[in-house]
């Protein structure tokens, strides 16, 4: 009898062990219904059904941190964000015989499904929730044919990669929730500039809302910084094949970390505080200067100055009562005359640039100097990694300079001004000389002017 009791206990332990090892996946023989969850192997993330509030009847399939309890439960991915289910009865997520993930509502209608374009690898698939928070659909031969991180909602997790563009076409965007308790697609999104792989925008609808810096030698070689007292974050932009990706990692032992685009249009890095049981800001972007084009054409924002909207050397405010109208030149540019360039250090370079590939700094300057319509240029050396498919980054501008900021950016911006200071001084000397000669000879005409064409 004692042996039977020991055998029974051993059976329960083994059963529990097998269950804990298998509840991170969904097979073609199983399905997931409301009230049940998949839990990643290390018990970091859970996948299941949730309602944003207790009073809400809308049901969503999502992924959240398993060890963060209500009411702080943090959802990082939602499958059917724009197609909520109103009746939880008979709802189920299944892996079909055609190796697709399908979510059915109570009437058996398809609410959401994956798109499987892979035709090789043999029949059969499983869906696995990983400790990175990535939910993958995997053929039995080990080939991943779909993954949730290629279809993000409002969050980027460490140790995952986000496909920003594919074959120069915008692919993935973060899209904010509509509200704090509404996972449906909101007004704000983050994605690549459709006209260039060199910059990322925060969009409000289809209009630019905020713009981080243009890709330079820091961002392509992997920016690393202390995100708090115990964590170091490294981020990287890189090409792999035809895809252009963003990824970031955090140091071992770091707390839970995530990049979030919130419903107000703020992009921030958040860390979980186990003492206060809340999310804290590890890094916040954008700042007050980053509202797109807030200082108007040719104006730049400087948070260390008052007022924050300033004009470059050689420019003046168009309207001293309305800084958003920007700045105008004190002296017009004239083609055929010798001009000079003023250097503005530590700048976020303007929008609407032309990218000229594989130029040295001198060649980049020459591209602008010999073109009458060029008003500014900027250069960055990308040869540390060459991962953007180029060894340098020469940018030139032929129109208004829009959305500039002066801060701790690793950029020099060279803006074209009127006649060279040396020529101007020479002309002034001639003018003074003429005045002196006129005075000495005591002619009726007291002043002898030199025309400065």
TrEMBL record:
Stretches assigned to coiled coil: none
Substrates-to-products reaction catalysed: L-threonyl-[protein] + ATP = O-phospho-L-threonyl-[protein] + ADP + H(+); L-seryl-[protein] + ATP = O-phospho-L-seryl-[protein] + ADP + H(+)
Top-tier EC class: transferase
Major subcellular site: membrane
Record bears the keyword Disulfide bond: yes
GO terms of biological process kind: recognition of pollen; response to other organism
GO molecular function: protein serine/threonine kinase activity
Record's function text: Involved in sporophytic self-incompatibility system (the inability of flowering plants to achieve self-fertilization).
Protein name (Swiss-Prot/TrEMBL): non-specific serine/threonine protein kinase
Organism: Setaria italica
């Amino acid at each position: 009898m004692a042996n039977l009791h020991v055998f029974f206990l051993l059976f329960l332990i083994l059963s529990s062990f097998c269950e804990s090892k298998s509840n991170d996946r969904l097979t073609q023989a199983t399905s997931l219904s409301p009230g049940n969850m998949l839990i990643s192997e290390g018990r970091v993330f859970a996948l299941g059904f949730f309602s944003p509030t207790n009073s809400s009847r809308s049901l969503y399939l999502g992924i959240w941190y398993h060890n963060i309890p209500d009411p702080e439960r943090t959802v990082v991915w939602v499958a059917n964000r724009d197609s909520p289910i109103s009746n939880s009865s008979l709802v189920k997520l299944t892996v079909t015989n055609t190796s697709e993930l399908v979510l059915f509502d109570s009437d058996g209608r398809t609410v959401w499904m994956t798109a499987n374009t892979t035709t090789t690898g043999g029949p059969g698939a499983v869906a696995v929730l990983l400790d990175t928070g990535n939910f993958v659909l995997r053929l039995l031969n080990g080939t991943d044919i779909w993954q949730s991180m290629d279809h993000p909602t409002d969050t980027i997790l460490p140790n995952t990669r986000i496909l920003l563009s594919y074959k120069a076409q915008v692919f993935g965007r973060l899209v904010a929730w509509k509200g704090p308790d509404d996972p449906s697609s909101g007004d704000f999104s983050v994605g690549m500039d459709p006209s260039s792989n060199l910059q990322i925008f925060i969009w409000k609808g289809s209009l630019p809302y905020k713009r981080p810096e243009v890709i330079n030698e820091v961002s392509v070689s992997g920016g690393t910084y202390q995100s708090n007292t115990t964590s170091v974050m490294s981020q990287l932009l890189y090409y792999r094949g035809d895809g252009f990706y963003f990824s970031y990692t955090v140091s071992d032992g770091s707390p839970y970390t995530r990049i979030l685009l919130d419903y107000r249009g703020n992009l921030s890095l958040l860390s979980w505080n186990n003492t206060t049981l809340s999310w804290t800001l590890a890094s916040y972007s954008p700042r007050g200067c980053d509202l797109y084009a807030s200082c108007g054409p040719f104006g730049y924002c400087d948070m260390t100055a008052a007022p924050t909207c300033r004009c470059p050397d050689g420019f003046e405010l168009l309207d001293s009562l309305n800084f958003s109208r920007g700045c105008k030149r004190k002296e017009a540019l004239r083609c055929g005359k010798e001009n000079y360039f003023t250097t503005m250090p530590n700048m976020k370079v303007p929008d609407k640039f032309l990218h000229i590939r594989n130029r040295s700094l001198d060649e980049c300057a020459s591209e602008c100097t010999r073109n009458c319509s060029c008003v500014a240029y900027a250069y960055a050396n990308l040869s540390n990694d060459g991962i953007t498919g180029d060894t340098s980054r020469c940018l030139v501008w032929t129109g208004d300079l829009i959305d500039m900021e002066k801060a701790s950016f690793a950029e020099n911006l060279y803006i074209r001004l009127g006649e060279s200071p040396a020529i101007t001084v020479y002309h002034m000397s001639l003018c003074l000389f003429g005045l002196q000669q006129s005075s000495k000879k005591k002619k009726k005409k007291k002043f002898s002017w030199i025309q400065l064409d």
